[in-house]
């Protein structure tokens, strides 16, 4: 069979040496990958690369294709996944023909004539509805677009996946049939993951390292290799991000000095959240026992002089720290991870239970870095998130011709982007986002739109580890956020809530401070002791305190009572609380809020006195009635009197339970007891 040797800009004899040269400049253990890539291009034929994430499968393919002279305009890249559909696969509907028949705009798909090589990422995450027609086109090399035949011009299709094809081929005829269209297949992974392997990787990135830089690379390689275990292996991508983060710690210090503490920043690297062992202690164990002080040179650092944001790198740590510490508690780690994200700069994912101020802290930091509200793109994702919304909505002026988006209304032109609840979005929206974060370009029809965003901060209440387990497509998206941090308090005890209230009301009077102390004690008692159990979030705590204080004012009271504290039940987030809130609050007040209980008893005693007067009025009214009406009125009054006596007895019992040693509280309790007994005597006299 004759082979078309002119589809590439170089001769077939040059393919192998050019590919190997292109890969060896950036990657280690790439010769076998280069050999199989050159074989696919030489034939030409399709190729499947598979293996664990973070090994640069797609990056190596692109590097090889560029090394042989192909341009980005000649390479088509598309991510597959659970949300992949025929619409997306074939380029979306042809708007011009919608009135006559369903056709696709194949000029926006991999079938477009300019593409010579196609890269499909996470191909086998797609549903069978998308894979079956793709199999047919790869076989026949023709797509029937309505009545029209659209030839497939691309010579090579390279599929990349993190999944082992041996695990999901059996029992799935659609996948089996599609895999048979990939003549060449190769697993991509390192031969070992030991200290020497990581040192070789770091030497490739910084070939001219100083003596201190070389020693730093050796220590970091030792730490990383020591963290690897049967259930966890640090990928090359994670290792390179660890190198970046730890080195940046030296720059953030201001003296370019690497110390032992710098290695602890590895915990912020994407993927480390799934590490189950005591990470901090294990890192310490891999380091030498003596002090570490390594002064890095410019050759050991990336972008050593450039200031990527409008605030200089030298100012970023101080600006972030001051802006957050003045308003939030337990914010040291988020200060560190945001500082790293803005310093590098790179994307960051903040996740954790709701109500901890993730978005608020991000927006506070961005404003202090000099970005106005109109310069920050903020978008909420969710189940209803669509590609239309993600890319700014359709360009109405072009709807009659083709489907293009008004990207000026999307995040693409913005330097700073905040995406909220990103993991709530559907796969249809997340898949194209992953592609754009990778290539930093969005193909709007046939027009490339550059992504100008320097830092994208994604916030979610959901645990990304749960999503990554179920979907390689989501896992691939999460890998585009090199830094990740779970945002939650280390503890949820009374002192934490007191510190929160003090931070929110720094000028509060001593009486308000006392009230805050009591309230902090009460809400801390509502927390579940189990690690995964219910915790009163900072937002619930602050909202509950405001409601309680407002309740006092609304009812014209001088002191807070239990009813005011119980308004916390109406705060968003408490609807999922299953325990008896009132009994827990009363128990907590016995331990640390006697003033509220005594105020509550005094308030209820006043109300009971009013009820007694109302009952006496009923007895008086009954005397004016005759017969059955008089009897009914007396029965109602007697029933109310019995309930009144029971209520007074409850006040007596509550006073017995209150134990006080403070002289002022002893005096207060005696006065409350006197009032209750006087009320009881009046009731007895009335009966």
Average pLDDT score: 90
Q: Would you tell me the structural class of the helices and strands?
A: alpha/beta
CATH architecture of the largest domain: 3-Layer(aba) Sandwich
Number of strands: 16
- Characterize the main sheet: 5 strands, parallel
Quaternary structure classification: single chain
Number of helices: 26
Give the tally of structural domains: 5
Can you characterise this structure?
The protein has 687 residues and is an alpha/beta fold. The chain folds into 5 domains: 12-187, Rossmann fold; 195-300, no CATH class; 316-486, P-loop containing nucleotide triphosphate hydrolases (Rossmann fold, 3-Layer(aba) Sandwich); 494-592, no CATH class; 596-686, Methane Monooxygenase Hydroxylase, Chain G, domain 1, CATH 1.20.58. It is built from 26 helices and 16 strands. The protein is elongated. The mean pLDDT is 90. InterPro entries: MoxR, P-loop_NTPase, RavA_ATPases.
